């Protein structure tokens, strides 16, 4: 009786050591066991699998393949052998960068033993290998198989997320949104849910890059997104580029009001002012330029704002205010590119103020287009 128990005891000891990550010691026991005449197929399979596992964990992938495929050839229809061998053979091939063979092994496991839990991981890994090779259609077929056949398996979550990402990579944003929404329906509390929401957000943003209405939808759906200010700024700038200054003004103000702490706010306020300058709405322009000076005391464009505010007051015929703002450029910004023009305009204002309301025939002063602060 004692002799009969010895192989089982050795097997138990070997796997106990293996599970403690003492791979070399476990390997020695498994290797000793396969030298013995073993009659029980369970022990034979377990010993050879243990040998292959330890070699795999020691990164001896070719040796592991020899062992695993050898025992598989002996018991090709025994699922106790076939399932782990097909899975780990695929892992060996993958680590050896023989990707086609890895996929072949995993797909064989999926097709032969579809109900096995290990098939869920094999299906995902085969799909992921296709995904990395940019073969998205083949990848999606395997990802869908995992989700549909193993919906509660942890790899179903990863597969569903990868489905969305594959469409995103192909810029099929509507399809990607559908898959990310499905992920959130199926796994709303999973650790990957924030990633799915972020990816869906990016889909809406990317759709909006070339479409103002889509960008407006993005801003409405994701007002707290890090990209919302950028999206609103793009909407406004498109109207500005089209010289639709009334709409541009409204949309730039939304950036300032809704995203006051964003890096886009200073530029948006300046461009809102420039929009109404183009509409010759001098009163409103003066208020916006003054707001910039109040809101952004360290703004990079303050010299240009003082200059433009001077031109606005000039056009309002408020020459003393114009004089004060041109003077601010000269006094506070000695290196400003507006120095020369500010000095010239200052002299015009002096003359106008000195002639007690008599206006000489002079060209109107124009506000300058300010550069982006971003």
The backbone outline, from C-alpha atoms, is elongated
Please indicate the count of domains: 3
Q: Average pLDDT value?
A: 91
Q: How many runs of DSSP E, i.e. beta strands?
A: 0
CATH superfamily of the largest domain: Tetratricopeptide repeat domain
> By helix and strand content, what is the structural category?
mainly alpha
Which blocks of ≥5 consecutive residues have pLDDT under 50? Answer: 356-365
| CATH fold node name of the largest domain | Serine Threonine Protein Phosphatase 5, Tetratricopeptide repeat
Please report the number of helical segments: 19
Strand content: under 5%
Q: Into which percent range does the helicity of residues fall? A: over 70%
Q: What is the highest CATH level, the class of the largest domain?
A: Mainly Alpha
Q: What is Rg?
A: 36 Å
Distance between the termini: 83 Å
SSE series:
HHHHHHHHHHHHHHHHHHH
**CATH 2nd-level architecture of the largest domain:** Alpha Horseshoe
The major pleated sheet works out as: none
Describe, in short, the structure shown.
The protein is mainly α. It is built from 19 helices and no strands.
Spell out the key features of this protein.
about 375 residues; mainly alpha; Serine Threonine Protein Phosphatase 5, Tetratricopeptide repeat; 3 domains; 19 helices; about 0% strand; elongated
Model description:
It is built from 19 helices and no strands. The protein is an all-alpha fold and 374 residues long. Helix 9 packs antiparallel against helix 10 and helix 13 runs antiparallel to helix 14.
């Amino acid at each position: 009786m004692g002799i009969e128990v010895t192989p089982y005891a050795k097997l138990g000891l070997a796997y106990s050591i293996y599970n403690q990550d003492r791979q070399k010691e476990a390997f020695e026991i498994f290797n000793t066991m396969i030298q013995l005449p073993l009659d029980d197929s369970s022990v034979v399979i377990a010993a050879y699998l243990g040998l292959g596992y330890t070699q795999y964990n020691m990164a001896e992938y070719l040796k592991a393949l020899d062992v695993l495929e050898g025992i598989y050839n002996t018991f090709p229809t025994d699922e106790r052998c076939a399932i782990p061998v097909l899975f780990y053979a695929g892992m060996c091939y993958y680590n050896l960068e023989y990707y086609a063979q890895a996929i072949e092994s995993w797909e064989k496991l999926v097709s032969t033993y579809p109900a096995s839990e290990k098939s869920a991981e094999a299906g995902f890994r085969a799909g992921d290998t296709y995904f990395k090779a940019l073969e998205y259609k083949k990848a999606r077929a395997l990802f869908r198989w995992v989700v549909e056949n193993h919906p509660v398996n942890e790899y179903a979550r990863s597969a569903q997320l990868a489905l969305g990402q594959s469409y995103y990579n192909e810029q099929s944003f509507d399809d990607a949104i559908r898959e990310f929404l499905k992920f959130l329906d199926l796994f709303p509390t999973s650790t990957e849910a924030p990633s799915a929401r972020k990816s869906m957000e990016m889909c809406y943003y990317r759709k909006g890059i070339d479409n103002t209405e889509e960008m407006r939808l993005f801003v409405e759906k994701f007002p707290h997104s890090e990209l919302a200010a950028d999206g609103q700024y793009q909407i406004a700038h498109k109207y500005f580029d089209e010289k639709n200054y009334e709409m541009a003004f409204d949309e730039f103000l939304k950036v300032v009001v809704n995203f006051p702490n964003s890096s886009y706010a200073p530029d948006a306020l300046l461009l809102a002012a420039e929009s109404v300058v183009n509409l010759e709405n001098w009163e409103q322009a003066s208020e916006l330029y003054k707001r910039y000076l109040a809101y952004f005391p360290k703004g990079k464009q303050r010299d240009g704002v003082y200059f433009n505010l001077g031109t606005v007051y000039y056009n309002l015929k408020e020459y003393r205010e114009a004089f004060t703002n041109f003077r601010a450029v000269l006094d506070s910004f000695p290196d400003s590119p507006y120095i020369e023009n500010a000095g010239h305009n200052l002299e015009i204002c002096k003359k106008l103020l000195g002639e007690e309301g008599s206006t000489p025939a002079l060209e109107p002063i124009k506000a300058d287009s300010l550069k982006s602060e971003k």
